[in-house]
């Protein structure tokens, strides 16, 4: 099965057709995708800002992480589900758009970074929490997350501009 | 002078002409700054509202959280205003008949009024009555997320 055939098949799924052909479905789901972003990227932005020392430095990282983790994950769930539906509606175009694939790669890298942070630092309430300046690895994860998610956001926002000719 | 003629003059102003002569990726850059500002504001409001609802950061005193998010809210609003002007000016006449455009700015005016009055006063208190805290959180979330949701619809209407 070629890439084009896969894209066509995705494009012709019931959900893809329904969203593409409805006047309201597309903006409603776009709106939900945007609200998902405020929860997912918005909350992770403040966690990153804490890791690099620009937000609530007096509060332990564990407190912030424990309290926001499930909302973050809920936000990423909403963003992912609405994102998949939006993708289905335009799969046959998106699959040929380099910026779409760049977005997918950046999401994957940002996910890996988060997973690495979570396994190495996030789940252990070690002594690093109390330090004024957090360990280099922790700050690196914060900066990497900021840049990667900003890259994801940029790619997403560029899709309609770079994909208009397709 | 009618509002439409103001919009007409704005669209034909030299600044608007300068913006519309730029590459279409310039517009994409303005859109990117706009969504970045939006995420800063919405996530800050979300953090404070979650604190008010008792759903997150409950161990951080309310005034401390409000203080810590304040500069991100203002930075976000400045980004939104500047990029918003760039997006609006070259197409002012196009936005004029769009009811969702007016709905968005109605909600935004209310959100900013709320922010400068009730929000500023209310969040100074260390402890607030739960019912008022929950009501405020609900009002904040509905208004600000309403602005964003309406804004997303403008282009489709």
If you had to describe this structure to a student in words, what would you say it looks like?
The complex is a heterodimer of chains A (166) and B (157). By secondary structure, chain A is mainly alpha-helical. Chain A has one domain. In chain A, helix 5 packs antiparallel against helix 6. The radius of gyration of chain A is 18 Å and the shape is elongated. Chain B has seven helices and no strands. At the A-B interface, helix 3, helix 4 and helix 6 of A face helix 3, helix 4 and helix 7 of B.
What key phrases describe this protein's structure?
heterodimer, A: about 170 residues, mainly alpha, 6 helices, about 80% helix, B: about 160 residues
Secondary structural class of chain B: mainly alpha
Beta-strand fraction estimate of chain A: under 5%
CA-CA gap between termini of chain A: 22 Å
Label the structural class of chain A: mainly alpha
Unreliable stretches covering 5 or more consecutive residues of chain B: none
Tally of helical runs of chain B = 7
Quaternary structure type: heterodimer
Number of strands of chain B: 0
Biggest sheet architecture of chain B = none
Radius of gyration of chain B: 18 Å
So what's the overall shape of chain A? elongated
- The counted number of beta strands of chain A is 0
Strand content of chain B: under 5%
Please write the string of helix (H) and strand (E) elements of chain B: HHHHHHH
| The number of domains of chain B | 1
Number of domains of chain A: 1
**Mean pLDDT of chain B, as a whole number?**
91
What gross morphology of chain B would you assign? Answer: elongated
